[in-house]
Design a protein that fits this description.
By secondary structure, this protein is of the alpha+beta class.
């Protein structure tokens, strides 16, 4: 039976993830009932994953502009000026639900999709990063998930020839039934060769390139817009299947065609596949679109327009070409052994029209599909009601550390602090030959090919802070990205984000979302660190793990900065015995309520004492900016030999990581105004540890003051001296064994 004649029942509407109210709007806007093809198109375009219907109203409040921002949110990726006529193009996206269902392909196609978002705009990808959140290591499914995700990231990135240079991995029981896999790509383009997605030019050809369309990934966007029920494994057919070798060919073919002037517009076929790419191109260009579905390259027999439009088969692109350039473009794609087909044209009707076997199977005005998609201002509980609901206890009866060395040794072997070498050794980080600093430091650094400058990049978020205090947690995620870039000497320029939350229809979850975004926005404004791209992933919760448990609020931040001369780059490892160790950002305290030695929500409190209590640490944005500028000036002047920011686990962990990166220990001194636990394991923000090879030169610089930063408000205190083979009485060999044991014992034993 032709799909245009299938009767649409309430059950079919519900299966497509649409509410009765939304379906009523569709009928009103069409002036009739939709057919099955049209219903499928509305379902994916109005899904949370594609329309951001619960988040758009809040995303508009975020700062997105700066003199160096060339293109902010709204395109495939964000674009910033990095000088000399060049631009950095980057974005982060989620592939959470697919990675839980099928970890290898879910993670692999997440990498493939974000690569396409970047090279679609004319950039050659130069680096991949990721941000991964897993459940308890003793969960029966978690070892399988970790192994599959890591193998998928490495398998795709390594084969396509783009280095994976950084990322982060956390474990918490809140991710038992819904892991998070966020992928980020950074690329470099010439500013006069940046491509956008708006389809224009009446009669211009619409061209399909890349792989053939199959039945994999159908309803992937709809699946990503709902929480998991007990039958999560039954959703495996909605997971896409990737081919990195085809992706490599697609990169080269697209960049070769982009070197000409044949392209009017280009769009990746990502979530919702041919539907989203065609709708977005036409709506951005204020045009209409006509597609001949008989000409869509298919790899399976008997595919219907419904399947073709909703398939999320990978390694596909849609483009609009200038008149008469079809032959030139086809020759390039055939040379790279890729499919090429003219499947339609740009019209002036303002409608999407699909024809198949002599029948019009879809005729939809584009306004309702894109610009008029549902927009919800979902209710959120107050901050006081949220605190009551979250049930985070105030930190009272603060425990003490009886043995700093013993606590440090235990912490270094815990899942959140253990060495990630087992992970990043599976990634090719050196392909392309421009990687200068990779996983294990504060930020990855990749040289701009043939130049003295380099891009620094990082992914950051502390979900336990965001749960305890969404506002401070949102601030901290941005501030830590700023800090990590500053710690290698890079000027922070802009961020992308991946906003991972639970069900937005729950007012408590919306309080997390709005609180985190408020904090992020204020931090971005204070630090001159705008948001240029991003992704929202909601409904990250699972009924299978016990009654609708949501992930921790996880607004992952991807930061990018610039080093004008990579020879000045800083690293975390101690360099020489006898060098002085200083803490920057230690005091004075800029706000009266900021705790000294903040142990609330600290890893020490959780891992040593089994308590998840207290408020998240306060983030003083003035201190963050001053300390970051101060550190960057010290690095540029060559006055510090090693730099590391202080984050998870506090000062003791930062020192241990610097020691293990070098093989040199340290003698340390405590602070009389703190308890040992507060001083060594408190997670106060805005702090860096630096080592100083020439004290006289360092002190002269301090006495003269700095160009931009207020040194006094940044705080400066000597805390030790590099030397020996131990730290806090623990041999570095024992620290290293503890640090490297977790993944080895878990994954390889």
């Amino acid at each position: 039976m032709p799909q245009s004649t299938v009767s649409i029942t309430p059950e079919i509407v519900a299966e497509h993830g649409l509410s009765p109210q939304e379906y009523a709007v569709i009928e009103d806007r069409l002036g009739r009932a939709p057919n099955l093809v049209e219903l499928g198109i509305f379902s994916v375009m109005w899904s949370e994953h594609c329309s951001y219907k619960s988040s758009r109203i809040h995303l508009k409040k975020l700062p997105t502009e700066a003199p160096w921002v060339i293109c902010g949110p709204g395109e495939n990726a964000g674009v910033i000026d990095i000088g000399e006529g060049q631009a950095a193009i980057f974005k982060m996206e989620s592939h959470n639900h697919p990675s839980y269902i099928e970890p290898y392909q879910g993670a692999a196609t997440g990498v493939g999709g974000i690569l396409r978002d970047v090279f679609t705009m004319g950039a050659r990808p130069v680096a991949n990063l990721n941000a991964l959140r897993f459940g308890r290591p003793d969960h029966p499914k978690m070892k399988h998930l970790v192994a599959g995700v890591v193998e998928g990231i490495g398998g795709y990135g390594n084969c396509v020839g783009v280095p994976t240079v950084g990322g982060e991995t956390n474990f918490h029981r809140a991710y038992d039934g819904n892991i998070l896999v966020n992928a980020m790509t950074v690329g470099v383009a010439e500013q006069d060769k940046i491509f956008y997605s708006a389809a224009t030019g009446l009669g211009n050809s619409i061209v399909y390139v890349g792989s053939k369309t199959g039945r994999d990934g159908i309803h992937g966007a709809t699946m990503a817009s709902a929480d998991f029920a007990e039958d999560a494994d039954a959703k495996r057919p909605t997971v896409q299947v990737g081919d990195p070798f085809t992706e490599k060919l697609l990169i080269e073919a697209c960049l070769e065609l982009m070197a000409t002037d044949a392209i009017v517009a280009i769009q990746d076929m990502g979530a919702a596949g041919l539907t989203s790419s065609s709708v977005e191109m036409a709506s951005k260009g204020g045009a209409g679109i006509r597609l001949d579905m008989d000409k869509v390259p298919c790899r399976e027999e008997g595919m219907t327009p419904y399947e073709m439009m909703l398939s999320e088969s990978q390694e596909r692109m849609l483009m609009v070409l200038k008149p008469g350039r079809e032959g030139e473009a086809e020759a390039i794609f055939k040379k790279w052994e890729l499919d090429f087909a003219v499947i339609g044209e740009v019209t002036d009707t303002g409608h999407m029209v699909l024809e198949w076997q002599g029948e019009v199977v879809c005729d939809i005005p584009l306004g309702p599909l894109a610009d008029d998609a549902p927009l919800y201002d979902r209710p959120a509980v107050s901050k006081d009601d949220y605190r009551a609901w979250a049930g985070v206890k105030p930190l009272e009866d603060v425990p003490e550390s009886n043995d700093i060395g013993a606590d440090l040794l235990k912490l270094m072997g815990t899942p959140d602090l253990a060495s990630r070498a087992w992970i990043w050794r599976q990634y090719d980080s050196q392909v392309m030959g421009d990687t200068l600093q990779l996983s294990g430091g504060d930020a990855a650094v990749v040289r701009v090919h043939g130049k003295r400058k380099a891009l620094a990049m990082t992914t950051d978020c502390t979900p336990r802070y965001c749960y305890a205090n969404p506002y401070e947690g949102g601030k901290q995620a941005v501030a830590e990205a700023y800090r990590n870039l500053s710690a290698v000497g890079a000027k922070p320029l802009a961020i992308t984000n991946c906003l991972n939350f639970g069900n937005p229809e729950r007012p408590e979850i919306m309080a997390q979302f709005t609180g985190c975004l408020e904090g992020m926005g204020n931090a971005c404004r204070a630090l001159d660190f705008p948001i240029v791209s991003g992704n929202v992933s909601l409904y990250n919760e699972s009924k299978a793990t016990g009654g609708g448990s949501a992930v921790l609020p996880t607004p992952a931040i991807g930061g990018v900065g610039i080093l004008d001369d990579y020879s000045t780059m800083a690293t975390i490892g101690f360099k020489a015995e006898g060098e002085a160790i200083y803490l920057i950002g230690s005091e004075p305290w800029a706000t009266p309520h900021q705790e000294r030695g903040h142990l609330g929500q600290s890893l020490w409190l959780r891992e040593i004492h089994g308590r998840e209590e207290g408020d998240a640490p306060h983030v003083d944005l003035t201190l963050e900016k001053n300390s970051g500028e101060f550190v960057r000036e010290l690095i540029a002047a060559g006055l510090v030999s090693a730099v590391h920011d202080v984050s998870d686990g506090g000062l003791a962990i930062a020192l241990a990581e610097m020691a293990l990166a070098s093989g040199l220990g340290a003698e340390t001194m405590a602070h009389e105004g703190y308890s040992p636990a507060e001083w060594w394991f408190g997670e106060d923000q805005g702090r860096y540890v630096v080592t100083v090879p020439d004290l006289d030169a360092f002190q002269r610089q301090i006495a003269r003051g700095t160009r931009n930063a207020d040194t006094a408000s940044s705080g400066l205190r000597r805390i030790g001296t590099v030397g020996g083979s131990s730290l806090f009485g623990v041999a570095l060999a024992d620290l290293r064994a503890a640090h490297e044991s977790f993944f080895h014992d878990w994954m390889e034993a």
